[in-house]
Amino acid sequence: MKTFYFFKLCAVFVLTTFIIACDKDDDTQPIVITAAGDIQAALDEYRELLGANNGGTAVTHPSGRREISWDGVPDSLSAPYFLPHDFFKARGADFTTPGTGVQVSADQSNPSGALPSFGNINPTYQQIFSPFSAERVFSPIGSNIVDLTFYVPGTSTSAVVNGFGAIYLDVDKQENTAFEYFDKNDKSLGVFATPYLNEGHVFLGVLFETPIVHRVRIEYGNSALGPNDGGSVDVAVMDDFIYGEPQAAQ
């Protein structure tokens, strides 16, 4: 399932996607693409809108996109260990959380013996967090919030992008998981909810007309990793991130 539409309303509900909040005076009209289950077509559509993949080198490009799949993270920086917040500095991405840190799950062959899919935190997660690409997935620890802030690749210069999208695993309830986009002045550009699919893959991608997004607040379900998923508890993790090429904020 995929939705692809323009909107200019403060609250819109279209199939599995809606905007929770927006600024009445903001003329920005983002494109929103969502999918649940078979997400490949939506993912490819979003990639095409952003442009060519610029890879992981710390060189700024005038257009195109960056991607993070987590699978290249070494064992020494994967669960049970924390990922440095600026590990993807060459791609212009910095990750912070109100919790204790951010973590990439272990793979099957890791030397520490940690169970994949955050099974080191709760063994039941191996059944509900099925990776979309390869083995490793991503989550905050000690919180269900991550702030992704953009910088000019390889530098500490603030940057903006024209869009950000990502794949979630096991979103049980639509109201629990969302992206909120902010400009360089920390003004909210809107809150966008993901689709939901228990123990499945969902995708949400938002594309603005021009590079305007400096930070994205990412909500993971309604609980930090730890408890069993179910009932009032909705835990979720993420796989691939896709975003526009970071451009220096003016």
Number of domains: 1
User: What best-fitting shape do the alpha-carbon axes yield?
Assistant: globular
Query: What low-confidence regions span 5 or more consecutive residues with pLDDT below 50?
Result: 1-26
What is the name of the CATH architecture?
Answer: Sandwich
Number of helices: 2
For the sheet with most strands, the description reads: 7 strands, antiparallel
- First-to-last CA distance: 37 Å
Strand content: 35-45%
* Percent of residues in helices: under 10%
Give the topology string: H per helix, E per strand: EEEEHEEEHEEEEEEEEEE
Could you please say which CATH topology applies here? Answer: Jelly Rolls
Mean pLDDT: 90
Task: Report the structural category.
Answer: mainly beta
- Estimated radius of gyration: 17 Å
Strand order, sheet with most strands = 2-3-13-12-15-9-6
Describe the structure.
- There is one protein chain.
- By secondary structure, this protein is mainly beta.
- The protein has one domain (2-248): Jelly Rolls.
- 6% of the residues lie in helices and 36% in strands.
- It is built from two helices and 17 strands.
- The longest helix is centred in the N-terminal third of the chain and has 11 residues, at 40-50.
Detail the topology: elements first, then pairings.
Blueprint (H helix, E strand, L loop, with lengths): L1 E5 L5 E3 L2 E5 L9 E6 L3 H11 L14 E4 L24 E4 L4 E4 L20 H4 L9 E4 L3 E6 L8 E2 L2 E9 L6 E5 L5 E6 L3 E11 L7 E5 L17 E8 L2 E2 L2
Antiparallel strand pairs: 1-4, 2-3, 3-13, 4-14, 5-16, 6-9, 7-8, 9-15, 10-17, 11-14, 11-16, 12-13, 12-15
